[in-house]
Amino acid sequence: MIELEGVPELIDPVMVAAFEGWNDAGDAASTAVAHLDREWKGEVFAALDAEDYYDFQVNRPTVFMEAGVRKITWPTTRLSVVRVGGEKPRDLVLVRGIEPSMRWRSFCNELLGFAHELGVELVVILGALLGDTPHTRPVPISGTTSDADLARRMDLEETKYEGPTGIVGILQEACTHAGVPAVSLWAAVPHYVSQPPNPKATLALLNRLEDLIDVRIPLGELPEDARAWQVGVDQLAAEDSEVAEYVQTLEEARDTAELPEASGEAIAREFERYLRRRDGAGPGGHATADGGDGPPGPPFLRGEPGGRPRPPKPPRTGGDDEESSEE
C-alpha cells in the first residue's frame, strides 16, 4: 500500500499528466502541466524511483552546484497537488515527467496506485503530435477516450487508433482496465515549426482542459507569448516564398475542412470561456496526426542562432519521400 504523508483529503481530485518525449511535440503538453504547477504553487509529495524506469544513457542526470556543494538531479516523474479555489473548489494531482525507458506496465500501475489512494475521479493525459496544420489557425485539439459511455457524456471521440503508441496511450488503457475514467487531450503542432517551445499549442491545451474539468486556469503571460510566437513564425515564413505558399496551401485545406463546423459548438464554447473569465477575476521523437498516437513525423528543426525557429522549405512533390525519425 502507498503511504501518503502530508497530503490532506482531496476534493473531487482530477489527475492531469504529461510526459516529455515522443508524446510531447514542441514540449506543449509538459509545458502545460508545468504551467499549472507554477501558477498554483504545486507541492511535490512523491517521485517515482528513477532506477526502476529510466535508462540514464538516454535520459542523463544533471549535476549542479548548491551552496558550494555538487548535487545531482535524476530524471524521473514527480507528483504534486494543487487546490483550485472558487465557488466549487477542487484539487488537481499533477503528474509531470519523462516517458519511461522500460517497465511501462509497472510504471502505470504505480501511478494508478497513487490515483486510487488519493481518490482520483478522472485522469486527463495531455499530449502533442506533429500534424499538417498551419500555424496561423487555431491549434486543433482532439479529446479521446477508450470508454464509450465517457465519450458520450463528455463529448469526446472514442479512440479507434491502431499502431505504435507511447506512454500516453498505455496509461490511458491501463486506466480503462482499472476502471478509472481517463481522457487524452492532443494538440496538433505544425510539423514545419516543431521545435519547442510552442506556447500557442500549450495555451490551446489549457483552454480545452479548462472546459473539460470546469475550472478557471490562470494563463499568466501565455496569451502574449502565443501571439509573439505566431508573429515570429509569420516573419520567418514571409522570408521564403515557397514556405509562404506551403502555409497558404495548409490554410486553404484547413478552412475547407472546417466549414461545416464554423458555427455553433465552437463559438458557444469560446463565449462560455469568456463569461467564465469575466465573472471570475481571481488568480485562477513525437507522435503524429495519423490517428492521434502514431510514429513520429519529420525531425525537429533547429532554431536560428538568434533562437527563432525557421520553417523548412516544403516538399515540391506530394511528400511521398518524406522521412520519419524518432528522437
TrEMBL record:
Name of a matching Pfam family: PAC2
Stretch list, region Disordered: 275-327
Protein name: Carboxylate--amine ligase
